[in-house]
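Something for you to look into today, if you have time. Could you write out one complete protein record for me, on any chain you like? The space below this message is yours for that.
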Amino acid sequence: MKKITFKSFLLSVCVLHSFITFSQTTIVANNDSYIWNSQSNINYGSSKLIISNDTDNSSHIREVYLKFPIASLNNVNLAIVKLTLESTIATTRSYEAYLVDNENTWSNNFIKWNNAPSATGTAIASGVHVGNTVEFDITDKLKTYVENSEVLISIKIVSTEEDVASHFYSTNTATLESQKPSLIVSEATLSIGDNADSGIDKAFVYYNPTTTSVYIGGLMNKQTMISVYNALGKLMKHEEYNAQIDMTTLNTGLYYIKVTNDLEQKTFRIIKK
Protein backbone atom coordinates (compact mmCIF):
# COMPACT_ATOMS: atom_id res chain seq x y z
CA MET A 1 0.00 0.00 0.00
CA LYS A 2 1.37 3.43 -0.93
CA LYS A 3 2.04 5.86 1.91
CA ILE A 4 -0.17 8.92 2.34
CA THR A 5 2.22 11.83 1.81
CA PHE A 6 2.31 14.88 4.01
CA LYS A 7 1.29 17.08 1.09
CA SER A 8 -1.82 15.05 0.31
CA PHE A 9 -2.71 14.92 4.01
CA LEU A 10 -2.59 18.70 4.25
CA LEU A 11 -4.82 19.06 1.22
CA SER A 12 -7.42 16.61 2.55
CA VAL A 13 -7.75 17.90 6.13
CA CYS A 14 -9.39 21.18 7.06
CA VAL A 15 -8.37 22.51 10.50
CA LEU A 16 -9.12 25.63 12.48
CA HIS A 17 -5.76 25.76 14.27
CA SER A 18 -2.64 23.95 13.14
CA PHE A 19 1.11 24.41 12.79
CA ILE A 20 4.15 22.53 11.58
CA THR A 21 7.10 21.55 13.76
CA PHE A 22 10.29 19.73 12.79
CA SER A 23 12.07 16.83 14.46
CA GLN A 24 15.52 15.45 13.75
CA THR A 25 16.28 11.82 12.90
CA THR A 26 19.81 10.43 12.43
CA ILE A 27 20.10 7.24 10.37
CA VAL A 28 23.46 5.46 10.38
CA ALA A 29 24.44 3.71 7.14
CA ASN A 30 23.54 0.02 7.29
CA ASN A 31 26.07 -0.72 4.54
CA ASP A 32 29.19 1.24 3.61
CA SER A 33 32.38 0.41 1.75
CA TYR A 34 34.85 1.73 -0.76
CA ILE A 35 35.92 0.14 -4.04
CA TRP A 36 39.31 0.42 -5.78
CA ASN A 37 39.83 0.01 -9.50
CA SER A 38 43.37 -1.36 -9.20
CA GLN A 39 42.15 -4.07 -6.78
CA SER A 40 38.92 -4.83 -8.60
CA ASN A 41 38.33 -8.23 -6.99
CA ILE A 42 38.95 -7.22 -3.36
CA ASN A 43 36.24 -6.26 -0.86
CA TYR A 44 37.04 -3.44 1.61
CA GLY A 45 33.81 -3.58 3.60
CA SER A 46 35.49 -3.92 6.99
CA SER A 47 37.97 -1.06 6.54
CA LYS A 48 37.77 2.71 6.64
CA LEU A 49 36.35 4.64 3.66
CA ILE A 50 38.80 6.07 1.11
CA ILE A 51 37.96 8.44 -1.75
CA SER A 52 40.62 9.31 -4.36
CA ASN A 53 40.97 10.46 -7.95
CA ASP A 54 44.53 10.28 -9.27
CA THR A 55 44.91 11.55 -12.84
CA ASP A 56 48.62 10.70 -12.91
CA ASN A 57 47.85 7.10 -12.04
CA SER A 58 44.50 5.92 -13.34
CA SER A 59 44.69 2.81 -11.14
CA HIS A 60 44.24 4.89 -7.97
CA ILE A 61 40.53 5.66 -8.24
CA ARG A 62 38.59 4.83 -5.09
CA GLU A 63 34.90 5.49 -4.57
CA VAL A 64 32.59 5.14 -1.56
CA TYR A 65 29.19 3.44 -1.50
CA LEU A 66 26.62 4.18 1.23
CA LYS A 67 23.21 2.65 1.87
CA PHE A 68 20.56 3.97 4.29
CA PRO A 69 17.21 2.45 5.40
CA ILE A 70 14.46 5.04 4.94
CA ALA A 71 11.21 3.10 5.49
CA SER A 72 10.56 4.95 8.77
CA LEU A 73 10.58 8.40 7.12
CA ASN A 74 7.41 10.24 6.16
CA ASN A 75 7.60 14.03 5.77
CA VAL A 76 11.13 15.04 4.79
CA ASN A 77 11.96 18.71 5.21
CA LEU A 78 15.77 18.54 5.04
CA ALA A 79 18.19 15.64 4.43
CA ILE A 80 21.97 15.77 4.84
CA VAL A 81 24.47 12.94 4.29
CA LYS A 82 27.51 13.40 6.53
CA LEU A 83 30.96 11.80 6.40
CA THR A 84 33.67 12.37 9.02
CA LEU A 85 37.38 12.41 8.26
CA GLU A 86 39.78 10.37 10.38
CA SER A 87 41.89 13.51 10.82
CA THR A 88 41.41 17.19 10.00
CA ILE A 89 42.74 18.34 6.63
CA ALA A 90 43.82 21.96 6.33
CA THR A 91 43.04 22.26 2.61
CA THR A 92 39.53 22.31 1.18
CA ARG A 93 38.53 19.31 -0.95
CA SER A 94 35.39 18.75 -2.98
CA TYR A 95 33.25 15.70 -3.71
CA GLU A 96 30.10 14.69 -5.59
CA ALA A 97 27.28 12.31 -4.68
CA TYR A 98 25.34 10.14 -7.15
CA LEU A 99 22.27 7.93 -6.81
CA VAL A 100 22.87 4.19 -7.26
CA ASP A 101 20.39 1.84 -8.91
CA ASN A 102 19.64 -1.63 -7.57
CA GLU A 103 20.07 -0.89 -3.87
CA ASN A 104 19.52 -4.54 -2.96
CA THR A 105 22.32 -5.87 -5.16
CA TRP A 106 25.26 -4.83 -2.97
CA SER A 107 26.37 -5.03 0.66
CA ASN A 108 29.51 -3.94 2.47
CA ASN A 109 30.66 -7.57 2.78
CA PHE A 110 30.56 -8.33 -0.95
CA ILE A 111 30.89 -5.14 -2.99
CA LYS A 112 34.01 -4.85 -5.18
CA TRP A 113 35.00 -2.70 -8.14
CA ASN A 114 34.07 -5.45 -10.57
CA ASN A 115 30.53 -6.02 -9.20
CA ALA A 116 29.52 -2.59 -7.91
CA PRO A 117 26.18 -1.26 -9.25
CA SER A 118 26.33 1.76 -11.51
CA ALA A 119 25.43 5.30 -10.54
CA THR A 120 22.61 6.99 -12.42
CA GLY A 121 22.55 10.35 -14.18
CA THR A 122 24.37 13.43 -12.98
CA ALA A 123 25.50 14.30 -9.47
CA ILE A 124 22.63 14.93 -7.03
CA ALA A 125 24.76 16.91 -4.57
CA SER A 126 28.22 18.32 -4.05
CA GLY A 127 30.12 18.61 -0.81
CA VAL A 128 33.17 20.52 0.42
CA HIS A 129 34.89 19.89 3.70
CA VAL A 130 36.68 22.39 5.83
CA GLY A 131 37.86 20.68 8.99
CA ASN A 132 36.82 17.07 9.52
CA THR A 133 33.34 16.69 7.96
CA VAL A 134 31.78 16.82 4.52
CA GLU A 135 28.03 17.19 3.96
CA PHE A 136 25.73 16.54 1.00
CA ASP A 137 22.22 18.00 0.76
CA ILE A 138 20.05 15.27 -0.83
CA THR A 139 16.71 16.70 0.29
CA ASP A 140 14.95 16.72 -3.08
CA LYS A 141 15.94 13.16 -4.01
CA LEU A 142 15.05 11.75 -0.59
CA LYS A 143 11.64 13.42 -0.72
CA THR A 144 10.98 11.66 -4.03
CA TYR A 145 12.13 8.31 -2.64
CA VAL A 146 9.90 8.64 0.43
CA GLU A 147 6.89 9.73 -1.62
CA ASN A 148 7.41 6.64 -3.81
CA SER A 149 7.50 4.41 -0.71
CA GLU A 150 11.11 3.33 -1.26
CA VAL A 151 12.70 1.61 1.74
CA LEU A 152 16.40 2.14 0.85
CA ILE A 153 18.53 4.83 -0.73
CA SER A 154 22.00 4.06 -2.05
CA ILE A 155 24.63 6.71 -2.86
CA LYS A 156 28.08 6.73 -4.44
CA ILE A 157 30.55 9.46 -3.47
CA VAL A 158 33.52 10.41 -5.64
CA SER A 159 36.30 12.97 -5.47
CA THR A 160 36.46 15.90 -7.88
CA GLU A 161 39.96 16.77 -6.68
CA GLU A 162 42.99 15.39 -8.50
CA ASP A 163 45.89 13.47 -6.94
CA VAL A 164 44.57 13.39 -3.35
CA ALA A 165 43.09 10.68 -1.12
CA SER A 166 40.68 11.35 1.75
CA HIS A 167 40.24 8.85 4.60
CA PHE A 168 36.86 8.75 6.35
CA TYR A 169 35.45 6.72 9.25
CA SER A 170 33.21 3.81 8.32
CA THR A 171 30.58 2.25 10.56
CA ASN A 172 33.17 -0.43 11.42
CA THR A 173 36.09 1.89 12.20
CA ALA A 174 34.28 4.74 14.00
CA THR A 175 34.82 4.92 17.75
CA LEU A 176 31.97 7.37 18.29
CA GLU A 177 28.41 7.23 16.99
CA SER A 178 28.80 10.76 15.60
CA GLN A 179 31.71 9.63 13.40
CA LYS A 180 29.68 7.05 11.49
CA PRO A 181 28.38 7.81 7.97
CA SER A 182 24.94 9.27 8.65
CA LEU A 183 21.79 10.56 7.01
CA ILE A 184 20.44 13.41 9.13
CA VAL A 185 16.81 14.17 8.40
CA SER A 186 14.50 16.93 9.58
CA GLU A 187 10.86 15.79 9.36
CA ALA A 188 7.73 17.92 9.40
CA THR A 189 4.86 17.12 11.76
CA LEU A 190 1.38 18.68 11.63
CA SER A 191 -0.04 19.56 15.05
CA ILE A 192 -3.77 20.28 15.39
CA GLY A 193 -5.82 21.86 18.16
CA ASP A 194 -6.56 25.08 20.01
CA ASN A 195 -3.80 24.42 22.57
CA ALA A 196 -1.02 23.89 20.03
CA ASP A 197 2.39 25.09 21.20
CA SER A 198 3.94 28.06 19.36
CA GLY A 199 7.01 25.91 18.75
CA ILE A 200 10.04 28.07 19.67
CA ASP A 201 10.53 26.31 23.00
CA LYS A 202 10.83 23.05 21.02
CA ALA A 203 13.56 24.41 18.75
CA PHE A 204 16.99 22.76 18.56
CA VAL A 205 20.16 23.23 16.48
CA TYR A 206 22.66 20.87 14.85
CA TYR A 207 25.62 20.67 13.94
CA ASN A 208 27.36 22.30 16.87
CA PRO A 209 30.30 22.85 16.56
CA THR A 210 30.09 23.48 12.82
CA THR A 211 32.47 24.25 9.98
CA THR A 212 29.84 25.15 7.37
CA SER A 213 26.17 25.43 8.30
CA VAL A 214 23.86 25.17 11.31
CA TYR A 215 20.42 23.60 10.94
CA ILE A 216 17.36 24.51 13.02
CA GLY A 217 14.63 22.01 13.78
CA GLY A 218 11.52 22.01 15.93
CA LEU A 219 10.18 25.31 14.57
CA MET A 220 6.99 26.23 12.81
CA ASN A 221 7.74 28.22 9.67
CA LYS A 222 5.61 31.26 10.47
CA GLN A 223 6.66 34.84 11.36
CA THR A 224 9.93 33.61 12.86
CA MET A 225 13.17 35.56 12.55
CA ILE A 226 16.74 34.30 12.92
CA SER A 227 19.55 36.55 14.15
CA VAL A 228 23.23 35.63 14.44
CA TYR A 229 25.50 37.62 16.79
CA ASN A 230 29.24 37.30 17.37
CA ALA A 231 30.77 37.05 20.84
CA LEU A 232 30.88 40.86 21.11
CA GLY A 233 27.17 41.20 20.41
CA LYS A 234 27.54 42.46 16.83
CA LEU A 235 24.69 41.43 14.54
CA MET A 236 26.14 39.29 11.70
CA LYS A 237 22.94 37.93 10.09
CA HIS A 238 19.23 38.72 10.34
CA GLU A 239 16.75 36.83 8.16
CA GLU A 240 13.39 35.12 8.03
CA TYR A 241 13.32 31.52 9.22
CA ASN A 242 15.29 29.07 7.10
CA ALA A 243 16.15 25.56 8.29
CA GLN A 244 19.77 26.07 7.15
CA ILE A 245 21.97 28.95 8.36
CA ASP A 246 25.08 29.35 6.23
CA MET A 247 28.09 30.23 8.41
CA THR A 248 30.88 29.58 5.90
CA THR A 249 31.66 33.30 5.53
CA LEU A 250 31.94 33.89 9.29
CA ASN A 251 35.24 33.74 11.12
CA THR A 252 35.94 30.94 13.58
CA GLY A 253 34.77 31.58 17.13
CA LEU A 254 31.72 31.86 19.37
CA TYR A 255 28.31 32.96 18.03
CA TYR A 256 24.78 33.29 19.37
CA ILE A 257 21.73 32.42 17.29
CA LYS A 258 18.52 34.05 18.44
CA VAL A 259 15.16 32.71 17.27
CA THR A 260 12.25 35.12 17.76
CA ASN A 261 8.60 35.66 16.92
CA ASP A 262 5.94 38.03 18.24
CA LEU A 263 5.48 35.99 21.43
CA GLU A 264 8.83 34.57 22.53
CA GLN A 265 12.50 34.00 21.79
CA LYS A 266 15.21 31.41 22.30
CA THR A 267 19.03 31.72 22.03
CA PHE A 268 21.59 29.07 21.12
CA ARG A 269 25.36 29.17 21.66
CA ILE A 270 27.26 27.99 18.56
CA ILE A 271 30.95 27.33 17.91
CA LYS A 272 32.23 27.96 14.36
CA LYS A 273 35.44 26.02 13.67
User: Anything to note?
Assistant: The mean pLDDT is 83. DSSP finds two helices and 16 strands in the chain. The radius of gyration is 20 Å. The chain has two domains: 25-187, 197-272.
